[in-house]
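Please think about what follows:
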Amino acid sequence: MKSTKKRWRIKNKKNKLLLTFLFFLYAHIYMETTLKDTQIPEIWETEEDKKLSIDGLRRFYKEFALKNFRHNPYTNKNTGWKIRVSAQGIGEIRKFRKREHIILVRSLDTMLENSIFFETVEDEKNTPGIENISYFDYKCKINGKAYTVRLILKKALGDDVRFFYYYKLTGT
């Protein structure tokens, strides 16, 4: 039994070149529009922020986070996971030492929803009630400088919700 299926081939070199050109043109246009739609978010220190000391800034953004983010449900677009911000996670703001680190609290909701999943690991400390720890990455600019933010989420035992715990900031 002979196959009646014909293979599509381009026999003419000019047609091959034209097809290759059209493919790369399409790829270029697609990438250009995709990148335009996914610009890196920028956060700037406000004039009010600049007037505050590090301790004052910490206190201000801790209150801001308690008022605006605590117990609000968020869904990460990359994984579909439900995330909540606990008072314990907000309390970690007291550890932030740099102004850029502190003012980033303003974008916590955006980071939780738009960060990209990196990995999930076992809780090596065997914290009671914690099943595992997940890491997410988020790119942003703070005061014009590019950073990568590593968000740390903890998953409670027997629950499908993750809780924001902390984030680390590294320059890129």
